[in-house]
Specification:
mainly beta, 3 domains, 14-stranded mixed β-sheet
């Protein structure tokens, strides 16, 4: 947290017991003046005028691009280009589409009026603009969507899953950057740049890219690059770092100088905590309070801040001495308060008295209902007793499901603040205790309890009862037009302000409703207890409320605001973005809507905007379209299919007798497991699991079935429901290993079944490996942490159904490539039949090979391989074995697909597959492949979901000469279909 702030911060905020730091600030009121102003403000009218006129401001969620010499910030917010002065949006581009990202060309590469000084992209299209708000002209398309950007020697670098591209400020289509194994890179100027590869090696150029020098030894395990001032800063794993200075020399004995490039300049007069999850304006919109001189009071990371709503900065910061998890400010009739909750304690701070702790409530065994209720500007109440433990639910708990309502405010006891240090306790009668749905505090310690009886009409009880300072209002839970829900998924809140009471005794506000958007309804209950519901804007799909304020969003993406508890709504000017405008949080300060914040509310003095824009259609959910394959396998049916079926069986494929319904689980895309489930067992799982799978790359596609005792899973009662597989090249075969999938590790099941190589448990997903001598070398994990391990192989092959002893696995080393290396898929195998290697290939087919040290687990320098786009069937004469071939196994997602129209009814699922390849710098040859498919001819359901316990895959081998042989296998519950194929090779 930053050291705060003003000399008079304690007096200005009066919100806690300690200030953090001090700095003189001119033109600030004295402590006495501030305290007097705060006390006068705290005694303001309960209905202070709304902030206005409303305006849209940019928050920290916007993608900041640059700041001009005039102090104007340029950002991409909500997909639209905007300019802001301070927090206020002052100009926006006339875009008709939303952009996904933007970047400015490095200053050394672009003239002021360069056609593509600014680069923008949307899906795979790239655009260039000469000025930030100017026309964006199309430059070309990329083979995949943009994942990241970086400054390069001659333009803007774009990282995609299918390669790295550079956009020149002069315009023209994106140019592919031809650097093998490029994971991430950064240029400090027109001559200095550093590249980090997929295998963690570092390459430095100081001559504008003419030559590159290997500096991996000086920069071991480099993970991140940034430019600070004139230095190229390299972050190493751990806390170490290095610098490439202006002369191109590697320096390790001084800190980087200057600010970080592409980040907003530091706001020296902003005291907002650096580690806060929200920006000051976002926090003010979420749970802020109106404060002095038009500012707001907001909460952040155990501190109270005063936020200037014109600039979006925190001008004062006050740290709380006690550890509080969550806090919220509020205003009552005689002052301003702060309520907080931490472990086993709820606390009330009196802001108007310098931040003293006014009251503490113990919560050791308190139910999880809402903690505090406020009637804004009037009174505060605690949901529970004033002293002692909270009572349990008054519901009849004999039944397993509670018959009471699920409102978090169901305590029959309520403690109301009468004044500073004075609190009054209220209890409802036993007959009403089980049906309290809300409490509303009132001035002078009075309270109103709202009771929702489980009836349609109130007959045998008075609607309103007054007992001293407690007023009880009774309604029917399903009394028209009410429909108060019995159960709710809403979590408890620290502070709720949903209801209030007018001077004539009318209740108005928000109640839970089974038929309302966001499970809310705007209601009024008059002084006699008769309810009425207010209409919401047509086609409302969501409501975001805070007391009398709220925002409604409709199906056509229009926004409507209310400032009177939903009695009326006014159209809101849409945010500057063109995307979805989903309100996220609201307070009396405003609302956060997407990446924008709307400050202020329209109290009726400002005319509502004209509704001239055509309504936006509510976009329907669409399943993401997988990347198209680089190459396609051309196969044809070679004969009719053969199938078998047994009814009422829930096993994989045809079985001799029906198998009872069991809990199915998935084993990669090659098998299934069926486990009896009878709830948690004290002594561990009992019974047997049925494991069935198709051996890898077996054209006959038999089903191997085994029964494994569930005791092999150990004492933990929870069953696994997915086993993911890694692939190990073992001579002419491919073997599997169990990786960490969803649920607990079940390696013992598939190890005993003979499907996987026993390695003593599960290994991190994804995993590839190769058998080298008497050991299997495995590379597992992704991102910037990968492990290289060795497993001693068992002396004999496992027998299905018998327990096997795992090999002795030990870790050889850890690899720490940069994060961007995750865009590559890894393969493993042998070079020249003897030397272990690892291959990395991206979605564009670019591939590099690195030797793997079998003793130390380290990777050598990369060597470029032929592109996967040139894949050829191994049976082709051009694929005769060569001395420099590396034979590897490659798991993939979409790189290899199926030729369209050749297998009618069959499509690649775009989700899983692996291939055995022979790879060299000159060519890449396909020996065998398995691809997960969908067979529309035999599918019971044609949705995108593959149920567990089923297998649908295509197997093809090119071991001989001429066309390859293949098999299509579709296995379901009690059914199996196999059909022979002829695979002619690869088509583009």
């Amino acid at each position: 947290m930053k050291r705060a702030a003003l000399t008079s911060a304690c007096a200005l905020l009066m919100a806690a017991v300690s200030c953090t730091g001090a700095r003189p600030t001119p033109n600030k009121p004295s402590s006495t003046e501030a305290a007097r102003g705060a006390k006068e403000d705290s005694k303001a009218s309960p209905r202070a005028p709304a902030l206005g006129p409303p305006r849209w401001v940019v928050t920290g969620a916007a993608a900041w691009i640059e700041r001009t010499e005039a102090g104007i910030d340029r950002s991409l917010a909500g997909g639209r280009r905007v300019e802001a002065r301070g927090a206020d949006v002052i100009a926006r581009a006339k875009d008709t589409v939303d952009f996904e990202g933007a970047a400015a060309a490095p200053p050394w590469s672009a003239a002021p009026a360069a056609p593509a000084r600014y680069v923008l992209w949307r899906e795979r299209e790239v655009f260039g603009a000469a000025t930030w708000l100017g026309e964006a002209r199309p430059l070309g398309k990329l083979p995949a969507t943009v994942q990241n950007t970086f400054d390069w020697l001659d333009g803007v670098g774009l990282v995609t899953a299918a390669g790295v591209f550079v956009v020149s400020p002069a315009g023209g289509p994106p140019r592919k950057l031809d650097l093998p194994g490029f994971a991430t890179g950064l240029a400090a100027d027109a001559r200095r740049a550093l590249v980090l590869t997929v295998f963690g090696h570092a390459r430095l150029t100081t001559d504008g890219g003419a030559t590159y020098r290997d500096v991996s030894a000086e920069l071991p395990e480099a993970t991140e690059l940034e430019v600070r001032g004139d230095d190229l800063h390299v972050l190493l794993r751990g806390e170490e770092s290095r610098l490439v200075d202006a002369r191109g020399a590697l320096v390790s004995d001084r800190a980087p100088q200057g600010p970080r490039r592409h980040e907003p300049p530091p706001e020296l007069d902003d005291f907002w905590p650096e580690d806060a999850a929200q920006s000051p304006l976002e926090a003010a919109a979420a749970y802020g309070l109106r404060w002095l001189e038009g500012d707001a009071l907001a909460i952040a990371e155990g501190a109270v801040a005063r936020v200037d709503l014109r600039t979006g900065r925190a001008t004062a910061l006050l740290a709380l001495e006690t550890a509080e998890d969550t806090c919220a400010p509020l205003r009552v009739k005689d002052g301003a308060l702060l309520v907080c909750e931490s472990h086993n304690r709820a606390t009330v701070f009196d802001l108007a008295s310098g931040g003293r702790i006014e009251r503490t409530f113990d919560l050791p065994d308190a139910p999880t209902w809402d903690r505090f209720v406020v009637a804004d500007g009037e009174a505060l109440g605690f949901v529970g007793p004033c002293e002692g433990p909270a009572p349990g639910s008054p519901a009849d708990v004999v039944a397993s499901a509670s018959p009471t309502n699920a409102s978090n405010q169901r305590s029959p006891v309520f403690c109301v603040r009468k004044g500073p240090g004075a609190w009054v306790e209220h209890r409802v009668a036993p007959a009403d205790a089980s049906d309290v749905v809300a409490w509303i505090p009132r001035a002078e310690g009075a309270a109103v309890a709202l009771v929702a009886l489980p009836v349609t009409f109130v007959h045998n009880a008075p609607r309103v009862t007054v007992r001293g300072a407690l007023r009880v209002v009774r309604v029917g839970r399903n009394e028209p037009p009410l429909d108060i829900t019995t159960y709710s998924s809403e979590t408890s809140a620290l502070l709720t302000r949903a209801l209030h009471v007018t001077p004539d005794g009318t209740l108005e506000g928000w109640l839970p409703s089974a038929h309302g958007p966001s499970n809310l309804a705007a209601v009024t209950i008059d002084a006699e207890g008769r309810p009425r519901q207010h209409a919401l804007p047509a086609q409302t799909v969501s409501l975001t409320i805070s007391g009398r304020f709220g925002i409604a969003r409709t199906e056509t993406e229009r926004l409507f605001e209310t400032t009177d508890y939903g009695r009326s709504f006014r159209l809101v000017e849409p945010p500057p973005s063109g995307g979805s405008a989903e309100p996220m949080s609201c307070s009396e300060i405003g609302c956060q809507v997407g990446t924008f914040v709307r400050i202020g509310w329209n109290d009726g003095s400002t005319p509502a905007p004209e509704d001239t824009a055509p309504p936006k259609q509510n976009p329907e959910y669409q399943r993401p379209i997988p990347e198209p394959p680089l190459v396609r396998l051309a196969c044809r049916y070679a004969g009719p299919g053969e199938g078998k079926r047994i009814p009422d069986s829930f096993g994989l494929g045809y079985t001799q007798t029906p198998i009872a319904r069991l809990t199915p689980g998935r084993i990669g895309f090659t098998g299934g497991m069926f486990i009896p489930w009878s709830g948690p067992q004290p002594g561990g799982a009992t019974g047997d699991a049925e494991v069935a799978y198709v051996p890898l790359l077996d054209l006959a596609a038999p089903i191997v079935r085994t029964t494994i005792p569930l005791s092999r899973l150990g004492p933990t009662p929870f069953h696994p429901y997915e086993i993911r597989l890694g692939y190990v090249l073992d001579g002419t075969k491919v073997r599997a290993v169990a990786t960490a999938g969803m649920g607990r590790c079940a390696a013992s099941l598939v190890d005993d079944a003979g499907l996987t190589l026993p390695i003593g448990g599960c290994i991190e997903d994804p995993a590839v490996g190769v058998v080298h001598g008497s050991r299997a070398l495995l590379v597992s994990g992704t991102g910037n942490s990968q492990a290289v391990s060795a497993v001693e192989l068992p002396r004999s092959a496992p027998t299905p159904g018998r327990a096997v002893l795992p090999g002795a696995r030990r870790e050889l080393g850890l690899l720490h490539p940069p994060d961007a290396a995750s865009r590559f898929d890894l393969a493993a195998g042998l070079l020249r039949g003897k030397d272990p290697v690892v291959v990395a290939v991206d979605a564009g087919g670019d591939a590099v090979l690195a030797p793997l040290d079998p003793d130390r687990g380290t990777l050598g320098p990369e060597k470029r391989l032929a592109s996967l786009e040139g894949l050829t069937a191994a049976s082709d004469p051009r694929c005769a074995p060569q001395p420099d071939d590396a034979r590897v196994v490659l798991p993939f997602d979409t790189e290899i697909g199926l030729a369209q129209g050749m297998l009618h009814g069959i499509v690649a699922s775009g989700s899983a597959g692996f291939a055995v390849l022979r790879w060299s710098p000159a060519r890449v040859c396909l020996e065998a492949v398995e691809i997960a498919v969908r067979d529309e001819r035999h599918e019971v359901e044609l949705g995108a979901y593959d149920p567990p316990g089923t297998v649908r895959k295509l197997i093809a081998r090119f071991d001989g000469k001429g066309p390859g042989k293949g098999t299509l296998v579709v296995l379901g519950f009690g059914t199996e279909v196999r059909q022979p194929l002829t695979c002619e090779g690869i088509v583009r």
